[in-house]
Amino acid sequence: MVALKGKTTIGDDINKKIIGPIVDANKLSDMPDFNDVTKLGSGKEMVDRLTNLIAIFENKALDFSKNRAEWD
After folding, report:
1. Residue 13 near residue 4 (C-beta atoms within 8 A)
2. Residues 3, 13 contacting (CB under 8 angstroms)
3. Vertex 62: Cα angle to 55 and 49 (nearest 5)
4. What angle do CA 67, 23, 26 make, to 5 degrees?
5. What distance in Å separates the CA atoms of residue 10 and residue 28, rounded to the nearest whole number?
6. Which residues contact 51 (CB under 8 A, 6 or more apart)?
7. Tally of CB atoms within 10 A around 47
8. Rounded to an integer, what distance in angstroms lies between the CA atom of residue 42 and that of residue 54?
9. Which burial class, exposed, middle or buried, applies to 14 when counting CB atoms under 10 A from its CB (0-12, 13-18, 19+)?
């Protein structure tokens, strides 16, 4: 997702490249639409909103990769 930050196609790319494979692999339905202009805005507004959302999760304080349970 980080590679998609700032791209004009970010919403559609998240849907097709990230969410789509998860949906297909797990036979899911009713997944979020990251290209929904009514909820995320359009154009630069959507790009900025999704880029900022992705940036939140890049925070080093949210890196729990070293936290392991005993049998993890």
Report:
1. yes
2. no
3. 20
4. 70
5. 22
6. 5, 6, 10
7. 20
8. 17
9. buried
The DSSP call for residue 19 is: I
Q: Give the three-class secondary structure for 8.
A: coil
Element at 40 (helix H, strand E): helix 37-40
CA end-to-end span of the chain: 26
pLDDT 10s per residue in the chain (72 long)?
999 999 999 999 999 999 999 999 999 988 999 999 999 999 999 999 999 999 999 999 999 888 888 876
Amino acid letter at 37?
A: V
Whole-number pLDDT of residue 18: 96
Residue 38, both tokens:
């009514």
C-alpha–C-alpha distance, residues 20 and 25, integer Å: 9
